[in-house]
Design a protein that fits this description.
By secondary structure, the chain is mostly beta strands. It has 2 domains: 278 residues, Thrombin, subunit H (Beta Barrel); 82 residues, Pdz3 Domain, CATH 2.30.42. It is 10% helix and 36% strand. A hairpin with a 5-residue loop joins strand 5 and strand 6.
Length: 386
């Protein structure tokens, strides 16, 4: 993306008077409530029931039924989907410095989608990360305290849980079957105050590679209106089936002053549900292929180090440890592809599986060293981990 454009993650809205202007946050900032993996002690042994749709497909982009198809109208699709979408309010603690510094409570808002009758809700990592308190309001106006089940910053997916029964979960669609031009319906909580808002448009692209917070993601693009507070809400197809979790939009202007409009993004539901299933089972993602190192990226040359991606520590038991990689190694290539920064490595590893062996070329003390690294699953909390 060029420096004339800003991709914003439609984060929850914060209300602290001093920070109001700062919190139309660009997606690359770290102003969100940061995440972690917390065990849910009251989950019990209740079975998690996730509903799969019978069909995923198009509908007419109007409220006129087509007699030759089984598609329903947008209003009917929205009526079917709306009870599964919830409003989320979070509270966190923030610290400011200086003469009037101190610790104070911050508030924000976002959206989520119910994925089981027993209270599991999928949302964005950036909506709930670092929160001290999470409150959920369901379609019928009831409010519940929610517990954080697990969160994954790499995919921007999180799962929370409320103690409730008889909820209406979303009907899960199949994001691999969507097509450009299909109807897209977005339901969420824009501005943190307008819960249950429905907007519609089309699917502009089914797999757009976007870099968010240095992570390379393949997202669904839509022209349906998305605003702050929609994060974590649902993107539904023309039959009311969940096909994506809203997480970002483009905003700003180009170098010629053209305003960017109608470009929003959602995490494909197939990806989102795969991550959510692991979070519900283990509280973290367990099958992601990693080198087993901690990383630091230098964007410019210094007196001691060249710009590039450096290993800062090796995780015990990892493939990197077995292959002899060391702290301060600069990663140059992976499987013959040059690596200039974290995003490059993230994109390459995204296509690998646990157990794959890759060739890693590093620079150490001015010499190039080639190592064969067998990738392992996530061994520790993956903060700046590769």
């Amino acid at each position: 993306m060029t420096n004339q454009e800003t991709r914003t993650r439609k984060r929850r809205r914060r209300y602290h008077p001093v920070l109001n202007m700062l919190l139309c946050a660009v997606i690359g900032t770290a102003c969100g409530l940061g995440g972690g993996w917390f065990a849910v002690t009251h989950m019990g042994n209740a079975a998690t029931v996730v509903y799969q749709s019978d069909s995923t497909g198009t509908s007419q982009p109007s409220n006129v039924k087509n007699a030759e198809t089984s598609a329903i109208t947008i209003s009917e699709a929205a009526e079917k989907a709306a009870p599964s979408v919830v409003e989320i309010v979070v509270e966190g603690t923030s610290t400011s410095y200086g003469m009037f510094g101190g610790t104070y409570t911050t508030k924000g808002a976002g959206s989520g989608v119910i994925i089981s009758e027993t209270g599991y809700i999928i949302t964005n990592n950036h909506v709930v990360e670092d929160s001290n308190k999470i409150t959920v309001k369901t379609y019928d106006g009831k409010e519940y305290d929610a517990a954080l089940v697990g969160t994954d910053s790499k995919t921007d997916i999180a799962v929370i849980k409320i103690t409730a029964s008889g909820l209406t979960p979303a009907v899960i669609g199949d994001s691999s079957k969507i097509a450009q031009g299909d109807t897209a319906i977005v339901i969420g909580n824009p501005l943190g105050t307008l819960g249950g808002t429905v907007t519609s448009g089309i699917i502009s692209a089914v797999s757009r590679e976007i870099v968010i917070d240095r992570e390379s993601m393949n997202l669904i693009q839509t022209d349906a209106t998305i605003n702050s507070g929609n994060s974590g809400g649902g993107m539904f197809d023309g039959n009311g089936n969940l096909i994506g979790i809203v997480n970002a939009k483009d905003s700003g202007t180009t170098s010629t002053g053209t305003v960017i409009e109608g470009i929003g993004f959602a995490i494909p539901v197939n990806t989102a549900m795969e991550i959510a299933s692991q979070l519900m089972e283990s509280g973290k993602v367990t099958n992601r292929a990693t080198l087993g190192v901690y990383l630091q990226e230098l964007t410019r040359n210094t007196q001691q180090y060249k710009a590039g991606l450096y290993i800062t520590d090796i995780i015990s038991g990892s493939g990197a440890e077995a292959a002899g990689l060391q702290a301060y190694d600069r990663i140059i290539k992976v499987d013959g592809t040059e690596v200039e920064g974290y995003t490059d490595l993230s994109k390459l590893l995204r296509e690998k599986n646990v157990g794959d062996t890759i060739e890693v070329v590093v620079e150490r003390n001015g010499e190039e060293i080639t190592a064969q690294v067998t990738l392992t699953g996530t061994l520790e909390t993956p903060v700046n981990q590769g």
